[in-house]
Amino acid sequence: MLTVQHLSALRESLPPATPENANLREDLLVETRKLLLSLERPDNVVERVGFQALETITISLSIRMGLLRAMEDGVIYAVEELATATHCNPLLVERILRSLTAFGAMAQIDINQFALNNVSRTFKARHNEAAMQHLCEFLTPGWLKLRESLKDIDYQNPESATKTALSKAYKPEGGTVFEIMVAESQLDAFSIFMGSINEGLKEWFNIYPVEQRLAQGFDNGPEAVMIVDVGGGFGHQAINLKKKFPNLPGRFVVQDLAHGLPKERPDGIEFMAHDFTMPQPVKNARLYYLRWVIHDWPQEFCVKLISNIRSAMKPGYSRLIVNELVVPAIGASKFMTVMDMNMMAVTGGMERTEALHRDYLEKAGLKVSQIYLPGDMVSAAVIEAEVA
Fold first, then answer.
1. Of 3, 2, 29, 4, nearest to 14 (Cα)?
2. 65-98 as b/e, with b when 16 or more CB fall inside 10 Å?
3. Which residues are catalytic?
4. Is the torsion defined by CA of 378, 207, 271, 235 positive or negative?
5. In sequence order, which residues have a C-beta less than 8 Å from that of residue 370 and are 6 or more positions away?
6. How many C-alpha atoms does 9 have within 13 Å on its Cβ side?
7. For 294-323, what is each residue's pLDDT tens digit?
8. Could you tell me the pTM of the whole model?
9. Closest by alpha carbon to 181, among 128, 260, 127?
10. Where on the phi/psi map is residue 294: left (φ > 0), alpha (ψ -120 to 50), or beta?
């Protein structure tokens, strides 16, 4: 029979959090969740599902109150000490810390004495702090409107980028998520949020054979373009590609709406204001690259977006990479499904199966030449396509 001692021993023997153990640890997480679910009584299930939003809100409160910033790793703090440091009521601080401890997000050392643990340490990091605030303050109001939004369309699959649950939560209604983010001054927070989401995920150029598929056969003229990162924002992918392959030839171009481009621009990267609903102005590039763009939009819009790129591609030479999740028909991960529900509420888009990816690409006049899977259930796949 399984005992508490057995579980304690297992916890002590976990493989370290190193890159080579990433898949093993992810598999262990899946099996551990199955174990937890099998232990739950019906009342446990109702408690977990019904009140789980309060866990998120309590962590967000601890960030907003400054509790996590006031704590250093390896130090034990008394409630009164933290109340003084944050100028918050001691009883309120005690209740917040007690709740965090019950959620597993804080370590209680003794009566009224607390310390950071691995969960609270995660949210002490500034980028994760900003990501949590963006999630709670900006995205959650849209999630809460999802039931109403789906009822309005008689429970059909959402096909509009403007008539979304998120647009119901903000005034005036009817904007895309990006228009709403501009109006609500959330673009910088969104960029930080995406950086936090991407942390620990596999880079596309570590999955995809860059030198074989891009460098070989490159038309190395004076104006030749190696990559156009469409909707690339601050250019993280182009910058990282250049760092990984410093001898990769050609121009590196990053496109986004003017307000989405960085003020400080690194050497070797060209930034171009471009609306991808319009025809692609950079012709005959070796690679047109899209990361976390397609999932933001409904299927028919994706056909239009890809068609605009298709018109600029040189047959037999140019390639398109869609760097997105490929959701398996069976056994989708929790990360994939929560991202899909988030897209449903916020953008009218979705996380797609292989069949749905092939559908919009083929309708836009492309053919899938290869799909490079990441080997885990959280990182994005690399879908390579060429002119049909």
1. 29
2. bebbebbeeeeebebebbbeebebeeeebbebbb
3. 295
4. positive
5. 384
6. 5
7. 999 999 999 999 999 999 999 999 999 999
8. 0.89
9. 260
10. alpha
